[in-house]
Design goal:
alpha/beta, three-stranded mixed β-sheet, 9 helices, 39% helix, globular
């Protein structure tokens, strides 16, 4: 029996991942700082990953064959440069070492496109684009990636490292780009798109979750971009959202915006594992707008 | 007053560094797991860097303006792949964070040439040679380098990262290359040089220590190779040692040795800081042979 321990299981990505893993035949042990009721598909465990004693107990109770480590500080506007990234790196190193010592077989970690040198020409490739993190978040994730590969080698477990680019979808923190624009539009407000020239590579969170499940279920070792391979201007995303909501003139673009650069991930490694996204950007944004529309109907202050 | 906290102060490099720092006007606070008597130049403190509570107490007692972090697992034949590298990385991250929180101004860490991709063409340059550590030691050091630069940025301290290539000199662990050859020769034994074709970049430990003091005393930020810029075949070093001892035919070369590659560090950054080595390889090896000769006279079993 494959048993996967999922940290950050109640988070934006984690929440979309658990059922997929159960469907693929994993016994799913989901970890969160907050208690959740278990189901047939998912056994929830309340634990703080930053507490080493708790993690040790957890690993020896669960005896996971697989580890999907999603937990990290993700507080919007804070996490890029928060010193808590050091604590999360330390906790993650200990988690990986304990997983190895307990006989774990395969670990998948969650990195970030901020590990790459953002001044490199897009699309960013796992094998050839230089890594040059420029903040604590990117540095801590990149450090963990280096260490995961060597800890895995030492303890003889396989490992892969997912580097998500940009994501959106139901359940996202409402202060982030797509929900903040969508909710403004749905509330009838006018708003400004601040970074319309920036080109970003977006995937719907359902596709991100399916991609992660695909990586976990494969034998692939090393880094893999979670990306579509295609860039879209943020201004174009704002336009698509305003058309979807039926208010095509409600978003103005900041005309003084600087060139926001192009952050696009080559998706060929991910594609080679058999993954294809279900959503294109238009259908994914439509799905997201409908989710927020329902949510606002139920609780108008909810976003 | 500049106060420098030196970890690993009783080690091979640390031992050659302390007096130099005192001469440059630093109040020297030297840390070792073993007690040492303090002098006018050096205040010794017995502490285990792997114990976070001890480190916290130490930082708040000493209030260092400067940190020279040399301590690490260095057990010959073990340290490349020992899981203790994870513990040292964790302890070093905490040390840097505490140093930053306590108002530290400048940190210098000790990396390794094993951070570089050894298949890259020599000489290895700080700015252009890809980093690709292939063992736990190299990965942990490279991770710490990434994190040091970002922890420094967060807490507003300056930082540099020394990458020593190969070193030798008085006091080295006798199981390592130069002392093992020198002692065999001095004892009248015949011996085999196993890796004669490998090209390596060697500096005498006195020069390494002076280079580290130069880096600490400078405003330079980022990585700096501690290297001579010149490669020498290991077989040539063996020949020089055998001539110095007066037994020119006592070392045979392994004729089946593989191509050991070339690990040479570009020294132009270090040179730009005003450092020039005092020893060339011949005078440095002569100095080393004399040290071992004295040592063997005093204690024939000592090497």
């Amino acid at each position: 029996m494959k048993t996967v321990l999922v940290t950050g299981a109640a988070g934006f990505i984690g929440g979309h991942t658990l059922q997929r893993l159960a469907t693929r035949g994993y016994k799913v042990e989901a970890v969160s700082r907050v208690a959740h009721p278990s189901s047939d598909a998912v056994c929830w465990r309340k634990a703080d990953i930053l507490d080493i004693d708790t993690v040790e107990k957890l690993i020896y109770e669960v005896r996971p064959t697989h580890l999907l480590h999603l937990a990290w500080i993700t507080e919007h506007g804070i996490y890029w440069n928060a010193p808590e990234n050091v604590e999360w790196l330390i906790a993650s190193l200990k988690l990986l070492e304990l997983f190895g010592r307990a006989g774990g077989e395969r670990a998948v970690g969650l990195g970030t496109c901020a590990e790459y040198d953002w001044s490199a020409p897009p699309p960013f490739c796992e094998a050839t684009t230089p890594l040059l993190p420029r903040n604590l978040y990117g540095a801590a994730k990149n450090s963990l990636s280096l260490m995961q590969s060597q800890i895995g080698r030492h303890f003889h477990f396989k490992q892969a490292w997912c580097r998500p680019f940009f994501l959106y979808g139901p359940g996202e923190n409402p202060s982030r780009l797509v929900p903040s624009l969508a909710c403004s539009l749905l509330r009838g407000e006018s708003t400004v798109c601040r970074d319309p020239n920036a080109i970003r590579d977006f995937l719907h969170v359902n596709d991100i979750a399916e991609a992660i499940a695909t990586v976990l279920d494969s034998d692939y070792e090393g880094a893999v971009n979670l990306s579509s391979g295609h860039g879209t201007e943020i201004g174009e995303i704002a336009n698509m959202l305003s058309i979807l909501v039926g208010r095509p003139t409600a978003i103005s673009h900041d005309r003084n915006a600087h060139d926001g650069g192009s952050l696009v991930g080559d998706a060929s490694v991910l594609t080679s594992l058999g993954f294809l996204p279900k959503f294109d950007l238009r259908s994914g944004l439509a799905d997201t707008v409908e989710w927020w529309r329902d949510r606002l109907r139920a609780a108008p202050e909810g976003c």
